[in-house]
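Quick one, tokens below:
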């Protein structure tokens, strides 16, 4: 039996939202690689109402297609179908990021930020960063990798990087050793060390106060990025810079 055969769909997808069908087999790869029969079958079933963001942006999406991509939607649809007005609410998610997810679900592709005009690059990069967090939540690793690549590329081509307001939520909801934590902590470290940047450590005060992990990651990134160069020994030489007196006053110690 081929992976994208109709038998596969009947075994793992048909009506699973209304009764327990046992294990669910998440689709690998890209929906664009699916056969025409598979794609048609995924679009022939019922639809679900999905509400996204604080303003409750409404999407009406094919249930079987959602569940084909990730078990997250399988579990949500099973739970919500038992309620009278079953629907999925993702009120903490970003509607623009969810729109990119929908594009991937139905078309198997995202736009390349390199093909966009300069004025669109940062907004798209920011949406891809939020898409990464959404994919982390709903267990879509392939799209997550594509999203972080577009985020990095968009930052580079726009000449902009995330600030503390964007970095703090990343540390709030991602696990330790998350690749996106590594990325944004290295960005912050570079901004702090860049002599041409207006940023210094105080720029990221809210991140330091909120997350010890962020502080550790930034310090480690600075250590790795600065190479083998050792700081001057602060216990050696004159100590006037550690005294409490004006810079123009004659030091009377020593």
């Amino acid at each position: 039996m081929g992976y994208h055969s109709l038998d596969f769909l009947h075994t793992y997808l048909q009506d699973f939202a209304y009764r327990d069908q046992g294990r669910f087999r998440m689709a690998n790869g890209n929906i664009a690689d699916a056969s025409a029969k598979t794609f048609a079958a995924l679009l022939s079933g019922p639809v679900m109402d999905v509400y996204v963001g604080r303003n409750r942006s409404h999407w009406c999406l094919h249930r079987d297609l959602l569940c084909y991509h990730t078990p997250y939607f399988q579990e949500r649809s099973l739970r919500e179908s038992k309620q009278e007005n079953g629907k999925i609410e993702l009120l903490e998610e970003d509607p623009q990021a969810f729109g990119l997810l929908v594009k991937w679900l139905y078309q198997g592709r995202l736009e390349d930020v390199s093909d966009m005009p300069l004025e669109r690059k940062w907004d798209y990069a920011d949406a891809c960063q939020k898409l990464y967090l959404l994919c982390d939540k709903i267990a879509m690793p392939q799209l997550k990798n594509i999203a972080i690549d577009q985020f990095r590329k968009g930052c580079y081509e726009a000449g902009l990087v995330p600030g503390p307001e964007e970095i703090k939520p990343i540390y709030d909801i991602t696990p330790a050793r998350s690749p996106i934590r590594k990325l944004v902590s290295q960005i912050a470290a570079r901004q702090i060390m860049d002599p041409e940047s207006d940023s210094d450590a105080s720029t990221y005060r809210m991140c330091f106060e909120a997350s010890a992990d962020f502080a550790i990651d930034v310090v480690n990134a600075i250590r790795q990025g600065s190479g083998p160069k050792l700081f001057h020994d602060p216990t050696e030489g004159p100590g006037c810079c550690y005294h409490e007196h004006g810079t123009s006053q004659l030091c009377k110690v020593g």
